[in-house]
Automatic annotation (TrEMBL):
Bias type Polar residues, positions: 1-12
Sequence ranges assigned to domain Fe2OG dioxygenase in this UniProt record: 192-293
This protein's name: Fe2OG dioxygenase domain-containing protein
Keyword terms, alphabetized: Iron, Metal-binding, Oxidoreductase
PROSITE patterns (UniProt xref): FE2OG_OXY
InterPro entries referenced in this protein's UniProt entry, alphabetically: DIOX_N, IPNS-like_FE2OG_OXY, IPNS-like_sf, Iron_ascorbate_oxido_reductase, Oxoglu/Fe-dep_dioxygenase_dom
Region named Disordered: 1-26
MF-aspect GO terms: metal ion binding; oxidoreductase activity
Gene3D superfamilies: B-lactam Antibiotic, Isopenicillin N Synthase, Chain (2.60.120.330)
Upper taxonomic lineage: Eukaryota, Viridiplantae, Chlorophyta, core chlorophytes, Trebouxiophyceae
Length: 330
């Protein structure tokens, strides 16, 4: 099955993971959840030790001193404000097709919502590679007219490169946290199936009891996500039977692990269910960078964990492409 024109299959969890396990809400955690902040300026071994703790517990953490200037982050958000303020027909002229590149309108990119409703967001995808191969997510990026949005493409390419550099540094820490050489993942990520997206959450307030979400509960499909948000809260993660807020923190990005890291580490590092619930009637913008390995990379958990089988994920050696088809069948 090929991807739909929106990105639903790219970030939606299999149906059995869309809802928190029944009966676990009574297990309130005694200690308030701490999502750790990992200082990227510290020596890698110290950062990797902190990261190991985060990856085995929440699968989410903040990164500070990440090297991306606030000026660049604000410039790309300013471009997105202008883009999403264009007339709907101008945006729809760039509507994403099979390649998943371009615009998807409000309600299109819905995770499997229990009420059958679409997510209250619109978005736009830009990939870091272009290819004419007839494969999911392959294709050519689309861009708004330079005369309409001056500097848009240049800003986005700069933002992609800056976020990619952060993601690659996190990948080195993941390798070290697995007691592997820091560059262990390098040859599996030298042609990554990676993209940036901007998500514009529309003004209305969300209500989980009515199935109205910014983004419904899902896990990310790829290896890891590096997320910049504006200062409007909304992101929640599902840990110890509870939905817990992960608020914006000045000068940091939020990083979470995706299903490929879960698979690659035999379930040791977690890909955690998350969603966006915006309580107030105000807009919200976020710009995730999604890192996935080379399309033909082999994901061998036995090699990565240097361990004998521990779970039902063990001994699975699947490429990124096969992982895609596993998810889209779910
Ligand atoms: O906007 C956010 O805070 C999270 C977005 C997200 O989870 C996603 O796009 O996969
Ligand atoms: Fe996500």
């Amino acid at each position: 099955m090929l991807p739909s024109q929106d990105d639903a299959t790219w970030t939606s969890a299999p149906a059995d993971r869309m809802q928190p396990p029944a009966g676990r809400n009574c297990n309130k955690s005694a200690v308030p959840l701490q999502v750790s902040v990992i200082d990227m300026a510290q020596p890698e071994p110290a950062a990797a030790a902190q990261l190991r703790e985060a990856c085995t517990t929440t699968g989410f953490f903040y990164v500070s001193n990440h090297g991306v200037s606030d000026d660049l982050v604000q410039r790309q958000f300013a471009q997105w404000h202008q883009f999403f303020n264009l007339p709907e027909c101008t945006k729809l002229a760039l509507k994403a097709g099979k390649s998943n590149r371009g615009y998807y309108p409000v309600g299109a990119g819905s995770a499997k919502n229990p009420f059958g409703l679409g997510d209250r967001k619109e978005g736009f995808n830009i990939y870091g590679f272009e290819s004419d191969l007839d494969l999911p997510f392959h294709g050519r990026n689309v861009w708004p007219d330079e005369a309409v949005l001056q500097g848009f493409k240049a800003t986005m390419l700069q933002y992609y490169d800056a976020m990619h550099a952060v993601a690659d540094r996190v990948l080195r820490l993941i390798a070290l946290a697995l007691d592997l050489p820091a560059d262990w993942f390098a040859d599996k990520f030298d042609k990554p199936a990676a993209n940036i997206r901007c998500v514009h959450y529309v003004e209305d307030a969300n209500d989980p009891d009515k199935g109205i979400f910014g983004v419904g509960a899902h896990t990310d499909w790829g290896m890891l996500t590096v997320l910049a948000t504006d200062d409007v809260p909304g992101l929640q993660i599902h840990v110890n039977g509870e939905w817990v807020d992960v608020p914006p923190r000045n000068g940091t990005f939020i990083v979470n692990l995706g299903d490929m890291t879960h698979r690659w580490t035999n379930g040791r590092f977690r890909s955690t269910l998350h969603r966006v619930v915006k309580r107030d009637s105000c807009e919200r913008y976020s710009s995730p960078f999604f890192l996935a390995p080379n399309w033909d990379a082999k994901i061998d958990s036995t090699e990565a964990t240097q361990r004998r089988c521990e779970s039902d994920l063990c001994n699975q050696t699947v490429g990124s492409a096969s992982q895609y088809s596993i998810r889209s069948r779910a």
